[in-house]
Amino acid sequence: MITRRAWIAGAAAVRALAAPLPRPVGRGPVPGSSQAVVVESVPLAHTAQFFAGSVKDALNDVNRALKAGGSSLERAVKLNFALASDDVAKDIRLGSRHLPPAVSLVTGTLPRAGYVVGVDAIGVSTKGAMRTTDVSVLAPGGRTYVSGQSANGSIPDATRATMEKLHNALKHQGLSWNHVVQVKSFLDPIQSADEVRAIIAGYFGKNAPPQVFVEWTSRGKIEIELIAEASTAQVPIEYLTPAGETASPVFSRIARVAHPATIYISGLYGAGTDGAAEIHGIFAELKRVLEETNSDLLHMAKATYYVANDTVSKQLNEIRPSYYDPKRPPAASKAPVSRVGQAGRTVTLDMIAVPRG
Predict the structure, then answer these.
(1) What is the pLDDT of residues 4-24, one digit of tens each?
(2) Percent of the chain scored above 90 by pLDDT?
(3) How confident is the model at residue 201 (pLDDT cuts 50, 70, 90)?
(4) Cα 110 from chain centroid?
(5) How many CB atoms lie within 10 A of CB 253?
(6) The architecture CATH gives domain 143-353
(7) C-alpha to C-alpha distance for 132 and 151, rounded to whole angstroms
(8) Contacts (Cβ under 8 Å, ≥6 apart) of 286
(9) Which sequence spans correspond to the domains of the chain?
């Protein structure tokens, strides 16, 4: 007799094989990467972050997690690298791949001495929905991106208070912790990652989702965001504000997506002699990539901004409103970091979008 779980997994495999192949667009920031990847309605495996003393070892660990989720590095559509120094980026060689993934880079202190890189990934899967601490599979259908939330207090207290805010965002959509696919924390000190991981896992019991950590240079602070499965909305993408929260013209508290396709865009960089020029350059490039992937600034789902100093952070706040429809900004997190993965640059933008129409 075929069990329901086996049937669901089999159906997911059939969908993954029948769906159009992911479409890479342009050249990304490291050899063997794409500037963007367009993915149709397929299961997507999201991994935890794996730290190692070499890029090769970290990618091997990510590959093992992806395989447990019915995927592999050969089917990865997005790789996120946290680097101990900008020089580590020179060691990233993804080689000649049938599907070059989109890539984002950020540089800063890692949780333990001896680590030089941390990597997490998203890959096309042949499995149905599942969740372990190493990998979760997001089944085709609705998904939701909840913007980074933060709270005051010690790191343990702020973590718990922030998780309650995230829980309220889930409840606003009729969701629970059971729907969460991945949790990402930006924190200082980054050495608190193991403590924070344990606190967050406690909200999920034995079935905690994958977690990712990035150093946040705001002293003694934490911000947490999450991705969750969701019931299908009535429109391709909608932007929600939970009761008790204030809407913002530059980011949405929640972006809920029903469109079957997802566009993963590599970390973008702009040229120029100052932060403002870099930011305008990034948005010009973003508009070009969105157009090439049949999208636009009205169909952005999730933005992560990495800023290397207070000046560029303020400039980003001032410039964003000139590009966004105040009723349709993406869910977002803005993380002050040591560096942004490319020497001489002070800001980068990592974006998830959906096609228009």
Answers:
(1) 444 444 555 455 455 678 999
(2) 84
(3) very high
(4) 18
(5) 21
(6) 2-Layer Sandwich (3.30)
(7) 27
(8) 265, 268, 297, 349, 351
(9) 20-138, 143-353
